[in-house]
Amino acid sequence: MGEAxxxxxxxxxxxxLAEQLAAxxxxxxxxALDGDLGAGKTRFxxxxxxxxxxxxxxxxxxxxxxxxxxxxxxxxxxxxxxxxSLDEADELGLDDYFFGDGVTIVEWASLIAQLLPxxxxxxxxxxxxxxERRIRLSGYGERYAQWCRQLDRR
Length: 154
Description:
This protein has 154 residues and is an alpha/beta fold. Helix content is 29%, strand content 30%. The chain has helices at residues 11-24, 41-51, 86-91, 95-98, 142-151, and strands spanning 2-8, 30-35, 66-69, 76-80, 103-107, 120-129, 132-140.
């Protein structure tokens, strides 16, 4: 496992991190995103999508659960599991996305931790006031651990 802390003084710093992760992404990658309401999960996801070359509006899939986007680099699967029970999430066939042709971001991922693949990047966004964020990254599996080593800014 690898860990990193990314301190974002501005929204631009958060966007920079999301774009870097998108640049490193390949099919089957999974980013498990958590943070309090208003911490910036959806904004992070929007910047990540832009980094994949997704055109158009990317908004929270709170009520649709899963949104699929075509990116210039890869397909992007954006999930919000906040309103799902573990059983409901299990019935959705999430593995088709997790091991598919695109990259997946799951917002509120800790709610379905038992269903997530063991290799993934866990991201926790903490709101520090104003535009400031502390973003904690935990990489499970060598690929994601390497990402953390490259990003660590403690």
